[in-house]
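Researcher: Can you fold this with iron/sulfur cluster in place?
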Amino acid sequence: MAYTLINARPAGRPATEASSTALAAGQGALVDSFKRRVTYLRLSITDRCDLRCTYCMPERMTFLPRKDVLSFEELDELVTAFAAFGVDKLRITGGEPLVRKDFMELMARFSRHLGNGLNELTLTTNGTLLSKYAGELSAIGVRRINVSLDTLNRGLFEKIARRDMLDDVLKGIDAAIAAGIKIKINTVALASINEHEIPDLMRFAHQRGADMTLIETMPMGEAETNREEDFLSLTKVKADLERQFTFTDLNDTTGGPARYVRVEETGGRLGFITPLTHNFCESCNRVRVTCTGRLYTCLGREDGADLREVLRTDPSGDLLREAILGAIARKPKGHDFNAERLATPASPRTMSHTGG
Ligand code: SAM
Ligand code: SF4
């Protein structure tokens, strides 16, 4: 194994003295002009992927030249800077994060901040390679993982993801659970595609002790599908499910934008992320950094800063910290997605570029 295990500890413990000291030492917290404190970073470590989900990217996707993508050292410097600013939750995403070469070495580097700034290190994955890495992820302190899964039907999986890899995903989910990692299943709700399967997917998740979150399609990047046709309002999904299941509203949040209910029949939790029908911006605590080092302070807008430029030109890190603070100060009040604009992307970026 090419990396050393540093500071593994259970997630969910409060931020330690070290992180409070970093704040007290004068770096300050990241508070925007609407008094929202940014404590959650989603970091994309690659734009590459082994699937081609139709709503996410075209079959012939053009990936970025490698020199444009941040190196391990640059990614590490970024994470260190955000952790010193009081960001205590780091979610690694992509593209598909597990396809990045030496992925575990990078994760092990990030894990040294656990208990020393970071409270939680987690990731969002399509699960195809999870069976390979689940044990090692658990060993470095990863306690929760989001796995994207839109169907349990092999043929439909191949149609949506354009690859016949459902079995790998299911093996990955089992391996993660066996390694003691809590799984959340993320499902994009697609009208007439997986709409009918949502109750089965929910039972599948809850039987494994996993939460499930439903997501509405977002107008990100050029897809080869008709988003207006595929768009399925979660208000409708919720109403349909409530004919079969009893929901109790929960106040839980997991630091993300989902609103949760308890499903009495299964005992599990079901979350709804509704960027188009419900505005979740008021309590937004998160920012995203792409694998090219572009900081986006809002998923649906272009506001942010180019952190790669300062990472590559200023070894002192001063310009990096200034760029982060400047961008947070300009964080917009909210996104401007709306259902009428589904056909024209609110953002030209694909989700795989920004990091979902
Ligand atoms: N490859 C990983 C995965 O699929 O989980 C991580 C990156 S992926 C971009 C993150 C999440 O974004 C996935 O759950 C995916 O289903 C979702 N996603 C991608 N494009 C989307 C879109 N246009 N609207 C809504 N969700 C989208
Ligand atoms: Fe890959 Fe995730 Fe996009 Fe699917 S949603 S193509 S798995 S990045």
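Model: Folded with iron/sulfur cluster in place. Residues 1-26 have pLDDT under 50 and may be disordered.
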